[in-house]
Amino acid sequence: GGGAYGAAKAGGAFDLLRFVQQPQVLARIVSAVFALIVFSCLVGDGYTSRPEDPRLFCVFNQNEDACRYGIGIGVLAFLACIFFFMVDVYFPQISNTTDRKYLVLADLGFSGLWTFLWFIGFCFLTNQWSWTRPEDVYIGADSARAAITFSFFSIFSW
């Protein structure tokens, strides 16, 4: 039998090929890439300035909160993916079923929360982008669209 939370398999040798083929690991890698794309698009091209004014403003309707939110959830999602990826690596070595249970529940709870936050982020960025005037965006329109698109994809990857 599988035991509680896979406890019967605890203590096995690490097999990289088998590990990478696990669905949760693939989903975690995809989620990390999507988060990296979102926050790097916003950090790289999410702020622009007018030729007559050197001050930077967010390309999303000049709403600083939109850029901050996208960058914040992107960075935290990327770091969480790294953390849970490391948990996935060490998970087979954990023999205590209580610890395994808490890790599985933490992963499930965090994934649910982050799915919701990505949905909010997608809606927020899309709304702010719809109110953005084209003359306010000289550079960064493609990055803004990419951030919106990958925020949407992140809803499903989480």
TrEMBL record:
Keyword Glycosyltransferase belongs to the record: no
Q: Where is the MARVEL domain?
A: 19-158
Q: Where does it reside? A: Membrane
Predominant subcellular localization, coarse grouping: membrane
Q: Output a single Gene Ontology CC term carried by this record.
A: synaptic vesicle membrane
Keywords in alphabetical order, please.
Membrane, Transmembrane, Transmembrane helix
Q: Which family does it belong to?
A: Belongs to the synaptogyrin family.
Task: Tell me what this protein is called.
Answer: SNG2 protein
